[in-house]
């Protein structure tokens, strides 16, 4: 069993930055692909960024050049650095640990960028 706890969300003005963290306990994240999703009010959850167990990354077009996903396997933690935030980045951000046979989810952290 894996427990994922996100932190770092909050309210930030447009153009500002936030750094989200996702700390895992229960087992190592080694071997897991790690992903950040977000869900805006009234919208479906969408994939924002992912990082493989080898460190290769992918981003949604809407966040390319502004967001950076990284992982610290020694700390069993994944990060999402978010710069140049826009109102459309508002939503609940969820951390996901993906293995071929199971997915683990955190409880989410709210990010609000007022328009």
Description:
The chain has no helices and 11 strands. It is mostly beta strands. Strands 2, 4, 5, 6, 9, 10 and 11 form a 7-stranded mixed β-sheet that branches. Strands 1-3-8-7 form a 4-stranded antiparallel β-sheet, with no helix packed on it. A hairpin with a 2-residue loop joins strand 9 (91-99) and strand 10. The termini are far apart.
What is the compact description of this entry?
The protein has 115 residues and is mainly beta. It is 0% helix and 52% strand.
Task: Label this structure with key terms.
single chain, 115 residues, mainly beta
How large is the radius of gyration? 13 Å
Task: Give the N-to-C terminal Cα separation.
Answer: 39 Å
* Broad structural category: mainly beta
- Count of DSSP strands: 11
**Percent helix:** under 10%
Low-confidence stretches: none
Q: How would the global form be characterised? A: globular
Tell me, rounded to a whole number, the average pLDDT.
Answer: 95
What layout of secondary structure does this protein have?
Elements: E1 3-7, E2 10-11, E3 18-25, E4 33-39, E5 46-51, E6 57-59, E7 67-72, E8 77-82, E9 91-99, E10 102-105, E11 109-112
Parallel strand pairs: 2-11
Antiparallel strand pairs: 1-3, 3-8, 4-5, 4-9, 5-6, 7-8, 9-10, 9-11
């Amino acid at each position: 069993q894996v427990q994922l706890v996100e932190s770092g969300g909050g309210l930030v003005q447009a153009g500002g930055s936030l750094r989200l963290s996702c700390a895992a306990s229960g087992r190592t994240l080694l071997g897991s692909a790690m992903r950040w999703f977000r869900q805006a009010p009234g919208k479906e959850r969408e994939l924002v960024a992912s990082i493989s167990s080898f460190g290769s990354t992918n981003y949604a077009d809407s966040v390319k050049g502004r967001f950076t996903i990284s992982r610290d396997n020694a700390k069993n933690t994944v990060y999402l650095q978010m710069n140049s935030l826009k109102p459309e980045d508002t939503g609940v951000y969820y951390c996901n640990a993906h293995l071929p046979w199971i997915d683990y989810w955190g409880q989410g952290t709210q990010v609000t960028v007022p328009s």
